[in-house]
Amino acid sequence: xxxxxxILAALLAVFYLYAGGKKVAQSREQLRPMMGWVDRxxxxxxxxxxxxxxxxxxxxxxxxxxxxxxxxxxxxxVGFVLIQVGGIAVHLSRGETRQIGLNIVLLVTAAVxxxxxxxxV
Length: 121
What we know:
- By secondary structure, the chain is mainly alpha-helical.
- The chain is built from 5 helices and no strands.
- Its main location: membrane.
């Protein structure tokens, strides 16, 4: 179970570090080809989502690794579930039903990470 958590946590952390880092560092024009929804949301909100994704990635890995407040890993995974619920809602509101596949995979992966983390927290 612990190995499964670390595999999922590493995959999620890498994904969210990349995606969150892009949202934090890039302009709307640079984000638009990959994330068309940025036109509908104020940039401060896009940046906030990016910061939360980067912090969540750290929260999945650092607390269990250091043994300091390992329950934060569960909180980070719950946050990722909520981010993906929001992402699915945005895509559905834009009529982009075909684009929610990645959101669903990330949501399920984060939910499994929650389950795995609660087995040892």
